[in-house]
Amino acid sequence: MKIKHQQTFIIWALLLFNTSCAQIPSMFKVSGSSLVESIDMVDKSIKEEAQLGICLIEGASIDPESYTDLWPRVASQLKMAIPSNNRFDAQRSWYAKHPSYLKRVSKRSSPYLYFIVTEIEKRQLPMELVLLPIVESAFDPFAYSHGRAAGMWQFVPATGKSYGLKQNWWYDGRRDVYLSTLAALDYLTYLNKRFKGDWLHALAAYNSGEGNVRKAIRRNKKIGKATDFWSLNLPKETKAYVPKLLALADLLNQAIKEQSEVEENESNWSFVANQPYFHRVSTESQIDLSLIADLSEQKMSDFYQLNPAFNRWATHPSGPHFILLPISKVDLFKKNLKNIPVKERIEFKRYKIKPGDSLNRIASKNSTTVELLRTTNNIKGNSIREGKTLLIPKASTNRSKYIKSNQQRLLAKHQKKRKGKKLKIKVKSGDSFWTLSRHYKVNLRSLAKWNNMAPRDPLKIGQTLVLWITDTKKYASLTATDSKMSKKQKLKKIHYMVRNGDSFARIASKFNTSINKIQKWNRLLSRNKYLQPGQSVTLFVDVTRLY
Fold it and tell me: Residues 48, 49, 136, 266: which is the catalytic one?
């Protein structure tokens, strides 16, 4: 009996020394094994589990409802092994030196945290994943990165679409708090299975792509190197990505322990109530966002905090017809919505079609889409007739009220004061962020960021961009050059060759001019006769304003 107790004691000591689990098991059985064999068995298991990024020992079962603050509930379920290396230490040191950042981010997480925690528990995933939005976006659902990743979970367009996150003029599912969380956990589950349960590999793949991690593993296998995450040659960002998550987990665990030991201790992790914050509600049809705010008696800023996916002033005509509301507002909204007929949930204005109009031009002028004009007015194709009337959906209040719409967020970016002098430019044919950054000698990523875009986003002809020039002489030189170029281009004469399907209206729309002006420049052409392919039409246009 004495020897058996000694064996158990030594194994316990080894476990305490080798693991960094938050909790210790209630018992560890040794049966029919020598002391050396038992120690070897424990040590081997610890190493194998550590390579997978999880802890050997499961914590005791917890009662989720026993907590008032969500962070201790999270900390009690942290299981990933904490490493001891320079890469981890560097990230931990940075977070430890910025407690105000942790407070700010944990406070920002409060509307979303309960939902994420409960989803992770349902799926029996590592609780460390609840910290991933801190690494990805600092819990900012409007975050947009240089790699075209959007939302709290930072989905790139293609991956978002493959996980059911719609992206269109009206709505971007990558910013949908509810659906993007489900999609992110689905994606992480898939990656974990693909990498045979290795969570560190799965997390690295979430950051840099499954293919990059697989290539790194194959390279190491080929040259006889270890294939655990810490041994792989991965992009710089990915090498720091996983240590950041583990550093946050370690700091949270430490903070909760210190708080429990000394009750007066103020944590760097802001209190988040351990209770649901929002509920998902159906609107049943397209609806103006300001009407939702009125019916639920909310400020627009509060509405957008839970509903950042909406790009415009209303929900998408064909859905999804769901919104998130604070639980305290759900019954009020449902009650008030019943009194608003579907036809009155969106306002319309009447528009008389003018000479030279096209569906594209009308849609562009009225901040709507050709598709919506067609469906609202029962139009097939692109044919419209001068003098006829169209019904055009419109915002029920001033556009500035929709403070987080794409338009207003871009306006806020453009109006933000920065170092240097602001220069506005119009995108011309052949322009890209790369060519413009070279021409104006500004940083590529900064140029994209100033315009609420990513460097790889496509530019549209006629689009207005803002850039900031710090060199006063260069600014004067550039504005003078651009002014001369602009004047030259306004006087430019074009001989346009008529193509199949061209009409006066189509050419006028294409070159941002009017039918009357085309007739004035081409006195021999009759408006009542069809244009013929191959026919030459003279135009005087400002090519910087082509759409």
Answer: 136
